[in-house]
Structure formats: C-alpha cells, structure tokens
Specification:
The protein is α+β, with helices and mostly antiparallel strands. Helix content is about 55%, strand content about 10%. It has two domains: about 5-65, Orthogonal Bundle (Arc Repressor Mutant, subunit A); about 75-170, Glutaredoxin, CATH 3.40.30.10. It starts with a helix and ends with a helix. The relative contact order is 0.10. The structure holds FE2/S2 (inorganic) cluster.
Length: about 170
C-alpha cells in the first residue's frame, strides 16, 4: 500500500469516528475530495465498506456528478475553456497544444503530478476568448506561444528553487 493510500484510509477512519455514519454518501465523497483533491479508488472502496453499501453504488454516485474528479490534481491545474465563444476562437487548437506540450490527454495528470489538464465549460470571461485558467489565474487571448511562455516560466521557477535548495545544502 502506498503512503497516500494509507493516509486516505487513516483519514476516512478518523472522519467516520468523528462524524458518525449519519452523513449522506455525497457529503462523505465531497469531504474526501476536499481533503485529497480527488477521489482515490482505495478511498471509494473504503467509503463503501464503512457505509455498508456496494462499491458499485459509490462509483455510480461519484461518476453521476461531474464535480468529482478521479485523478489527483497537478501542482498546476490547467483548465481549457471549451465554451461556445472559446470554441469559435479555436479552443481546440489551444487544447491540442497543451496536450502536446504536457504529453497527456484531457482529464489526465503528468506522471510527476506537476500538471493536470481539463476541458471546462464557459468560465465567464468570453470577451477574452480563447481562455485557459492556470491555477487561479484566468489567461485570455490564449495562444500556443503563450502556452510555451507559461511552461518556460514554470521551468525557470522550478530550476531556481532547485538551485536555491542546493545552495542552502552546500552552505549548511
Ligand atoms: S466560452 Fe470560454 S470563457 Fe466563455
């Protein structure tokens, strides 16, 4: 069992001890997602066991609502708007470029969990179409070169942090 799976089981055990078993399935799943950022498979099976329902029941409820996610979010969450205004402004080209650069599909996470990529409906900034939300930042008039710039910026940040940590270690 991975450390994360153990943490999920421990957290659920504690949750049910404190909250009792009177909560609805949706409430428990929302709390689990709030805590871990997604619904881990192990967690859903444990919820089923603790609530005395079938795992199929839990999966059925979780997949019915589109607010649940089944992959861990990346450190940088990339949400590409595919609403009508963005669609007209070639959001598909933007999504393709993110996919190519990150080497993952929509709904997936990079193996290092640095990035997750999602298609989303209108984020309410249609005049800025095409739009991508990176973390909490809404970026309008998105282009392939902007994507390259964002990724380059992240790479430089990461490199700076590694260099800083190396200098600290050497100085210690
Ligand atoms: S359609 Fe993309 S922001 Fe509205």
């Amino acid at each position: 069992m991975t450390e994360e799976e153990q943490a999920v089981l421990d957290w659920l055990g504690e949750y049910f001890r404190k909250q009792g078993s009177g909560k609805s399935l949706i409430t428990v799943l929302l709390a689990l997602q709030e805590k871990f950022g997604y619904l881990p498979g192990q967690g859903m099976r444990e919820v089923a066991r603790l609530m005395g329902v079938s795992a199929a029941n839990v999966y059925g409820v979780a997949t019915f609502y589109n607010r649940f996610r089944f992959n861990p979010p990346g450190r940088h969450e990339i949400k590409v708007c595919m609403g009508t205004a963005c669609h007209i402004k070639r959001a598909d080209k933007i999504l393709d470029h993110w996919k190519r650069r990150l080497e993952i599909g929509a709904g997936e996470v990079t193996p290092d969990r640095e990035y997750s990529l999602e298609r989303v409906a209108c984020v309410g900034c249609c005049t800025l179409a095409p739009v991508t939300v990176v973390g909490d930042e809404v970026i309008g008039n998105m282009s392939t070169s902007k994507i390259d710039g964002i990724l380059l910026g992240h790479d430089l940040d990461r490199k700076q942090k590694v260099d800083g940590a190396t200098r600290e270690t050497e100085g210690a």
